[in-house]
Amino acid sequence: MKGKVWKFGNDIDTDIILPGRYLIYTDEERLSEHCMEGLVSDFKSKVNAGDFILGGTNFGCGSSREHAPIAIKGCGISAVIAESFARIFYRNATNVGVPLLEAPGVSALIEDGEEIEVDMENGLIISESGKEIEFKKLPPFMLEILESGGLINYLKNQKNE
Amino acid sequence: MSTIAEKIFARASGNGEAEAGDIVMADIDIAMMHDLTGPLAVESFNKIGTEKVWDSSKIVIPFDHQVPADSLDSANNHILMRKFVKEQTIENFYDVKEGVCHQVLPEKGHVIPGTVIVGADSHTCTYGALGAFATGIGSTDMAMVLSTGQLWFKVPETIRFNVEGKLKENTSAKDVILNIIGQVGADGATYKSCEFAGETISEMNISDRMVLSNMAIEMGGKTGLIEPDGKTYDYLKDRVSGENRNRLKAFIEKSNLKSDLDSPSLEIMDIDVSELEPQIACPHNVDNVKPASELDVEIDQVFIGSCTNGRIEDLRDAARILKGNKIANELRMLVIPASKETYLKALDEGLIKIFVEAGALVSAPCCGPCLGGHTGLIGPDEVSLSTSNRNFKGRQGSPEGKVYLSSAKVAAQSAIEGRIAVPKEE
Fold first, then answer.
1. Which of A25, A38, A88 sits opposite B122 (nearest CB)?
2. Which of A43, B43, B138, B302 is least surrounded, with the fewest CB atoms within 10 Å of its CB?
3. What is each CA distance from A33 to A69, B65, B398, in whole angstroms?
4. Among all residues of chain A, which has the CA nearest to that of B401?
5. Which residue from B minimizes the CA distance to A97?
6. CB neighbours (10 Å) of residue B89?
């Protein structure tokens, strides 16, 4: 996976990822139009498919709204990288098929706008200047859930096998 | 040598034992979803393709976030959920008239000590105040629960806040929890079960305990547990019915739902509240906590309500201060009782009259401006003082607005003065 980094700070909460007034929607397209709008206006139109979100500690804290990772997915973000993630967000993002890569120390090493490469198999983030940063590799079943596009598709695929 | 959380998962997993770090599949006793997270869960449930929910008596659906419907989109969400309730013969459905989910579930007797409750709402941890392991989940996890009645959990470690000391008259449980969150930080208890114990907690009524448990999530906690005691039983005994009545009785008779203090997964933090002053969480993080006396902040709107502080005790606190006074000019004040039961009590006690005479708007039970989706939003550069639980950027409307969090006592005093103010010690 290769893409540009959109860098944010610590404690990025799910209200900032997707404000409460848009929870009346359930479809990915409409939700993604409002992703991160309190911090970056028209985030979706600025992001290219495959780009990454980089956060600090406690990314995804607050509300349990699954609308938040769905909005991120709808923007075409290929993975969220952070120092650490909040618990409910971690489950929700995995369940909707957004990979979360936990890499302590990462925010000091990668700048906003940098082009990076992510090697899921070896658990490595490679910066523009060639620095290698390790993240906690995901177990095989989680990779399968993500490759299926989320938990529900994964369960369906398993039923059909 | 186990914690409350481990004891609950030992039973719910069917394994007979559970240790922090174990991954277990647990039986769910109650699953809750509301009008805002329900539609996504129902969509996911339909995608899984299960025809019937696992148990229509164990699912609770209150409408509280967008009530009454404020847009066609909300109305359509309500229609979708009412249809689901009918098709699946959901027994515990509370339409727009009952109140905020986290107040309605305890009031209606759905929260039994020792059970596992999941809710598609992060403040589900509130029910820990009655000794249930209750936690927030997303809509896909909820779809799995609706289909199977089970969910996997990592059994959490426990951080036990041992709270001692008598609170000053102008403080309350809200000041205690804000102070704790300020000390440990917004991720200080991530993945952990928070426990509130000690003399101060034993002295607290159930409403105050719910304030503490409600905000466990604001430090990353998975739940906020309090050992059930006589007060728990007294609160629930006339509220439970059917099978739950027997469960509650059996539970009280052989209760051992206490954490063993020598449990390896238990960490203890001592908190002394005897000198605690009124606390405020300042924008834009709940752990940005300062004493109210140190702030010099003018406010545009005061909101008293929500699943944190919209209970009758909060309304009494506010009414005591507001009685015979008027709120400041150019200030808006919203008072929203957390439930129909609270609203009726407030009417009986004459509290609503006090609020209206002081210049406040009183609305029917709902989540109100807490999550900035429905009513009472703030605009750019406006300042809200709120008794709710989150002050994130944009939480109550404009991302250029500011939200401060306080107790109902501080909110009422501040409404009179038009700025953040410390109530007098009575």
1. A88
2. B43
3. 13, 22, 17
4. A38
5. B140
6. 12
Distance from CA of B295 to the nearest CA of A (A): 23
Query: Helical H runs in B88-138?
Result: 101-107
Give tens-digit pLDDT for B257-312.
Answer: 999 999 999 999 999 999 999 999 999 999 999 999 999 999 999 999 999 999 99
Q: How far apart are the C-alpha atoms of B294 and B279, rounded to whole Å? A: 10
C-beta atoms of B220 and A87 within 8 A = yes
Mind listing the pLDDT tens digit for each residue in A2-27?
A: 999 999 999 999 999 999 999 999 99
- Interface probe for A, chosen from B78, B371, B396 (most Cβ of A below 10 Å), is B371
Low-confidence ranges of chain A (pLDDT < 50): none
Contact B155, B22 (CB under 8 A): yes
A63 touches chain B (CB under 8 A): yes
Residue range B178-186: mean pLDDT, rounded = 98
Reported pTM: 0.95
Interface pTM, i.e. ipTM: 0.93
Yes or no, beta carbons of A24 and B36 under 8 Å apart? yes
Listed residue (B67, B58, B61, B53) closest to B82, CA to CA: B61
